[in-house]
Design goal:
The protein is α/β, with parallel strands linked by helices. The protein has two domains: 128 residues, Rossmann fold, CATH 3.40.50.20; 135 residues, Cytidine Deaminase, domain 2. It contains nine helices and 13 strands. The strands form three sheets. A six-stranded mixed beta sheet has the order 6-13-11-9-7-8, with helices on both faces. A five-stranded parallel beta sheet has the order 3-2-1-4-5, with helices on both faces. Strand 7 and strand 8 form a beta hairpin. Helix 8 packs parallel to helix 9.
């Protein structure tokens, strides 16, 4: 059983949910809020807390070592910074030197380099599956709204295309409607994909969004995630539902998301 964990907190609600889940389990938490990125500052339930710039890698590692933490989870969203705008410390310079050698590759490639660097520093990387499995999506219909038979064709199509673009480390999401693919996720993210597809497709509710883990993705980081904002965005842009990979995706604020989706008539389906 894990007794203590270091949480490196980027943007969004996932760091908060992981922290609360650890607190309920009695796991000691050593929380690093990334300055100007993380949005959950000085949480009272954390065992210890610091704030640090992303590039102050030495400061972060020293904090974890001083508290005898050897397991780390990286949680939340992280936009790729401009290397020329960063002012790193010595450890940060060593990590950036590796990242700058990248000629190609998406977020998955970047995180693999970061994880390898941290493992070489003596830390073990953990994921949501290890720390807070209750946050993962379950199989089948989630909530009270079920996809109709004709929508299941779009569920399967969107799912398959999301997996294919994931193989190329492009994105995690795709949109289908009436047997056609309307769009795939790019660097602009899922919300932009949803809005972009609205201009191409259906009257009334119709489109299906699929979010799937990339086949070669390290499942300790950046699992496909939806939340309240996703459901509202789907509703505002005429979508009928969302399909997620069971066991490899996350629903933030799960009970609230399910209640809202039920109210708006949007299905959530785990495959």
């Amino acid at each position: 059983m894990i007794k203590k964990i270091g949480i490196i907190a980027a943007s969004g609600d996932l760091p908060k949910e992981i922290l609360e889940n650890c607190y309920e389990q009695g796991i000691e938490t050593y929380y690093v809020n990334l300055r100007d990125i993380g949005n959950y500052q000085n949480p009272q339930i954390a065992t210890k807390y610091i704030e640090s710039k992303l590039t102050n890698v030495g400061k972060i590692l020293n904090f974890l070592r001083e508290n005898k933490v050897n397991k780390i989870i990286f949680a939340g969203g992280l936009k790729r910074p401009s290397f020329t705008s960063l002012i790193p410390d010595l450890k940060g310079m060593q990590l950036l030197a590796r990242l700058q050698k990248l000629k190609k590759g998406g977020d998955n490639t970047i995180f693999k380099i970061i994880f390898k660097f941290l493992e070489e520093e003596g830390f073990e990387m953990a994921g949501v599956k290890d720390i807070a499995p209750a946050l993962l999506t379950q199989q089948g219909v989630i909530g009270s709204v079920e996809p109709k038979m004709k929508q299941m064709r779009d569920v399967e199509l969107a799912k398959d295309i999301a997996v294919e673009i994931g193989k190329m480390d492009i994105g995690q999401a795709a949109v289908a409607h009436e047997g056609s693919i309307l769009g795939v996720e790019g660097i602009d993210g899922t919300d932009a994909l949803i809005k972009r597809c609205k201009t191409l497709h259906f009257k009334g509710k119709g489109g299906v969004l699929a979010k799937m883990k990339k086949p070669d993705q390290d499942d300790r980081i950046d699992l496909p995630t939806i939340g309240i904002k996703t459901i509202r965005n789907l509703d505002e842009n005429g979508f009928s539902g969302v399909v997620l990979e069971a066991g490899n995706s996350i629903i933030l604020n799960k009970s609230d998301v399910i209640d809202l989706a039920d109210e708006l008539g949007i299905f959530i389906y785990g495959v």
